[in-house]
Amino acid sequence: MQLTELTAVELGNKIRTGEIGAVEAAQASLEQIGRLDFRVQAYLTVEPEKVLLQAAEVERGIRSGALTGALAGVPIAVKDNICTKDMKTTCASRILENFVPFYDAEAVVRLKDAGLVVLGKTNMDEFAMGSTTETSAFQTTKNPWELSHVPGGSSGGSCAAVAAGECFAALGSDTGGSIRQPSSYCGVAGIKPTYGTVSRYGLIAYASSLDQIGPIAKDVRDCAALLEVIAAQDKKDSTSMARPDTNFLQAVGQSVKGLRVGIPTEYLSEGLDDDVQEAVMRAAGYLKEAGAVVEEFKLGLMEYTIPAYYVIASAEASSNLERFDGVKYGYRAKEYEGLHDMYKRSRSEGFGPEVRRRIMLGSFVLSSGYYDAYYLKALRVRARIKQAFDEAFSGYDMILGPAAPTAAPRLGTSLADPMKMYLSDIYTVAVNLAGLPGLTVPCMVNAEGLPIGVQLIGDCFAEKKLFAAGAGLEAVRGPWMQSDLVRGEEQK
Ligand code: GLN
């Protein structure tokens, strides 16, 4: 077995016992990046010298007994909308092409304090707006299972890097599905935690009331271990919470006997591909075999989630992205006449078409005369959606469903029709509107050789139940596969 095939927890154990060195692990990841990333194109930035220096320092820390955490020495990738001190953070946008933060995001501070080694920054949809990573201004990331397909998005780079063994785990961000959907497409595990669990300090904001940073990894246990590292209240993010229950690893392996799992009938209706339906049914079977009770129920309000999400997310985005004006940050147009023209040109040239579309939509729904009709109405719908989930969780411990209606689409087929792309977020956005945790677990590989994951949705603060159920599902499913590319068996 190759070193890069270990899970993060397995590697952490071997590093702790001295069987593998932190530098050796970092080197293995860098080699895998060298071997595969010119094809996968998951990373925007990798700085090997810095990585090896950090790994050497961590190795000293482990030897001296200063670093004792489960993941000390484990190499990790970070999505490029999460600030990293002295390392470029571009949001995959021209407007931030040369932005080098002078501070680490709180989640990154916590990674480094726990001895994880940051390998580099991963590609994403520009400002996390998109579902395929194709709106990146810089490169197109490929799905390691089928290089002609997208990895999903917006955390497509992070998910592809994990799937290709080019890191042992990664951080992503999820505003409307950006951890869970690409995790499904890439055959990895990923969790969007309850809103407020991970500090958003240093996460470049898309829609602040929906954004959450979360782990992406090879399996559920790794996600739990990583969430344990990054979950904490932070006085620099007033929406972050003190949670007494962040010992998530403890939940992995716990029995799921008697657990009540509901599948919303609406999730299985039209628009869902047969193979995704099959994945959900298989997952239901696995959970039943593990002792859970699984049944269908009516959740309601499905048809309102996409419109409400796109109104609220765009409104917040239009406000958050005001700060990119060509004065304080990043790109400034070369030629302009006067201040207003400079703003206009810098923003028109610096932002790509999808970001500009959202800014226009957001400004529109917030403008006087339309605010009540669209934005306020969307907020009311949001409250109703939360109620519908509250009701569901009075009868069920968790909800099982798809993470996306299809497996990963082919490259180049999604961007032409933005409406269709928005509609594909149907199974993920409600979770962010209601602030809930959602976990994607890899479930099967379809006839085309593409992986499909399923989503477990919990009530607020119910991550432990999700980890227990996710790990229970994995145990019945059996060991997960790797793509031909990673096994080195892909036909050239
Ligand atoms: N696809 C969704 C959007 O474009 C979700 C993105 C995300 O979660 N960052 O808004």
Task: Explain how this protein is built.
There is one protein chain. The model has no long low-confidence stretch (mean pLDDT 96). The protein has helices at residues 8-16, 22-40, 48-64, 106-113, 156-163, 180-186, 220-230, 274-289, 302-320, 338-350, 353-366, 371-395, 418-423, 429-433, 463-477, 484-487, and strands at 43-46, 75-79, 117-122, 169-174, 189-192, 212-217, 260-264, 293-297, 398-402, 438-445, 451-458. Helix content is 40%, strand content 13%. With 492 residues, the chain is of the alpha/beta class. The chain has a domain at 3-255 and 437-453 and 466-491: Alpha-Beta Complex (Amidase signature (AS) enzymes), CATH 3.90.1300. The radius of gyration is 21 Å and the shape is globular. It has an 11-stranded mixed β-sheet, with helices on both faces. Bound molecules: glutamine. Glutamine binds at residues 128-131, 154, 174-178, 206, 313, 425.
Say what the CATH topology of the domain at 3-255 and 437-453 and 466-491 is.
Amidase signature (AS) enzymes
Helical content stands at 25-40%
CATH class of the domain at 3-255 and 437-453 and 466-491: Alpha Beta
Radius of gyration: 21 Å
Low-pLDDT runs of 5+ residues are none
Strand order of the largest sheet: 1-3-2-4-6-5-10-11-9-7-8
Order of helices and strands: HHEHEHEHEHEEHEHEHHHHEHHEEHH
Number of helices: 16
Determine the strand fraction and express it as a percent band: 5-15%
Which descriptor suits the 3D outline?
globular
- CATH superfamily of the domain at 3-255 and 437-453 and 466-491, called what? Amidase signature (AS) domain
Averaging pLDDT over every residue, what do you get?
96
Instruction: Find the count of extended strands (DSSP E, 2+ residues).
Output: 11
Structural class: alpha/beta
The CATH level-2 architecture of the domain at 3-255 and 437-453 and 466-491 is identified as: Alpha-Beta Complex
Q: What does the largest sheet look like? A: 11 strands, mixed
- Compute the separation of the termini in Å: 23 Å
Bound molecules: glutamine
